[in-house]
Amino acid sequence: MRAVAPMSLVALLGGCEPQHDARLASDVSIVGDAVPASLTGAPGDAERGRAIFVSREEGHCVLCHQVEGLDAEFQGNVGPALTGVGGRLSAGQIRYRIIDAQRIWPDTVMPAYYRTHGLRQVEHGYEGAPALSAGQIEDLVAFLEAQAS
Ligand code: HEC
User: Fold this and answer.
1) Rounded to 5 degrees, what are φ and ψ at 100?
2) Which tens digits make up the pLDDT trace of 49-77?
3) Residue 101: closest CA among 145, 61, 44
4) Euclidean distance between the first and final Cα of the chain, in Å?
5) N or C, which terminus of the chain has less Cβ within 10 Å?
6) Confidence at 122, pLDDT banded by 50, 70, 90
7) Which atom of ligand 1 is nearest to the CA of 104?
8) Can you give the residue ranges of every domain in the chain?
9) How far is C-alpha 130 from the chain's CA centre?
10) Distance 83 CA to ligand 1 centre (A)
């Protein structure tokens, strides 16, 4: 489990002060295109992350993404396949894409799961709370980080 960004990324962004975004559910330090630190201060659980990824009531990421070998009734392809994503992106980059994909790709259809303000659509009853909790996001990061090939 990598808790910090790889040195190459840190070097690339050398001297960059962490950014903060008041639209997020808590005070998150954004460094370049990554959130290097765990939102809970602890590593997530990959097995719980797998369940959240598939669950219609929770993340339901399979609506748009597939992961090879995943046991799910349906896997969509609106988003890129996430097979091997742990080899392409650091944990911090994966975390930021789940937290706020719309900050990275302004026109994306992927929801900003850890934003409470400036959402395009607010589901009734969800105003003020992010779509996923910090713990759920860490579980998803652990699951996707393990998809290394
Ligand atoms: C409504 C469709 C949709 C849903 C639901 C969705 N995503 Fe995405 N996701 C996308 C799209 C589309 C992209 C690519 C960005 C773009 O071009 O818009 C993306 C990109 C990503 C990336 C970056 C992949 C890469 O190779 O760069 C990650 C990681 C990711 N999504 C994780 C998730 C997780 C985890 C969930 C569930 C909590 C989720 N997504 C839910 C549509 C979705």
Assistant:
1) -155, 70
2) 999 999 999 999 999 999 999 999 999 99
3) 61
4) 16
5) C
6) low
7) 15
8) 1-149
9) 13
10) 12
Treating both helix axes as pointing N-terminal to C-terminal, what angle do 134-145 and 91-104 enclose, rounded to 10 degrees? 120
Q: How confident is the model at residue 121 (pLDDT cuts 50, 70, 90)?
A: low
Q: What is the pLDDT of residue 89?
A: 98
Rounded distance from Cα 79 to ligand 1 centre (Å)? 5
Contact 116, 27 (CB under 8 A): no
C-alpha to C-alpha distance for 105 and 123, rounded to whole angstroms: 21
Tokens of 136: 């759920």
Partnered with residue 115 across adjacent β-strands are 24
Question: 1-149, what's its fold?
Answer: Cytochrome Bc1 Complex; Chain D, domain 2 (1.10.760)
Whether residue 124 has pLDDT greater than 70: no
